[in-house]
Amino acid sequence: MALRTALFLVIAALGWDGCSSRTNGPTPAPRTGPWRMALDLNGQELPFLFDLEHDSAWRLLVHNGEERITVDDLTLRADSIRVRMPLFDSEFRGRVLNDSTITGHWHNYLKGPDYRIAFTARAGRAQRFEHDGEPVADLSGQWRTHFSHGTPEAYDALGLFTQHDGQLTGTFGTETGDYRFLEGVVDGDSLKLSCFDGSHAFLFKAQLRHDSLIGRYWSGTHWQEPWIAVRDPQFHLRDPDSLTFLKEGHDMVDFRFPGLDGGTVSPKDARFAGKVLMVQVMGSWCPNCVDETLLLDELYAKHNANGLEVIAIAFEKYEDEARSIAALKHFRDRLQVKYPIVYAGNANKEVASAKLPFLDHVMSYPTCIFIDRKGKVRRIRTGFYGPGPGEHYTHYKRNLERFLQDLLAEQPQAS
Prior knowledge:
Glutaredoxin, Lipocalin, 5 helices, alpha+beta, nine-stranded antiparallel β-sheet, 41% strand
């Protein structure tokens, strides 16, 4: 009996993450206002800033350059805190040590049930990166960048930076998308940039050596690689409209997949006849897909009455179909997506290629197929650059608007 009582008392004292709760009085609530969090990437610190707010409920506001991510699923229980990210299957689980210090782990379940990264968060106004050196150069502009030189994983990218005094923002654009909103500093001859959005945990460091940036990139604790960049305003990646195409013998897009609320959806359905159709290949786990979805939904709301339709074909990370459907419904409802989303299977490029046999391959999530009123494919866009690259996003959005207006002005095929 005494042993059972002792075990009960031990279990009752445990909080989330198996850490013991204090018994010497109530834990003060974390203070509201600015905070700085640092993720421990095996000895490398990935910092980001957030605001903690409280009125009728608790909220976080995560900062990445111009991006602000509102996180409203936050629970405090005694000295334990749990923060669920809004779109992606990840959360913070930690302990409130006092009103200005929280420690614990960030869990990213899309990487597996045991994937977690330790964090420490401290209240108070602070710099994202500590720095005290005057910048030796202005890194603003376009940089030709190469990752993992000499390996099978090597790829080119476009470094796009804007510097004001020692503060640096920007992104890296690749042929499959961009690295979203990066924020950091130029400290002497060193570059430091980071991003955290609930899916990505990115850290970039480099040193300026003559005319080159020589650095390293960390993605969470599971990946790191070297990179090198030189300033080159003329450098361009391959045209994203040239990377994916229809297989020989195919001139149209044909599929039928289950919708999220029952039934099936196909471009051959009567509702799409004679319409301009965008088919988006995506996944709810993909941050670049979030950016593209927001744009496509805006265009759909603007041009649907004139004959524009959109179908999203989703490939998900979960093996379980019910869990995948639930994730897609959450994605749809959170972003208030107004066009249909269908579920096609697991987010594996081989699976996607088998499910979409009219494409030569699926190189990137997202990929967008543009189909005219006669059912002919007019364009296939691989990857997506969101607002992070600034003028590149603005330029693409402006050109896409003109392209859609031209398609909508065409006459449908006579019955």
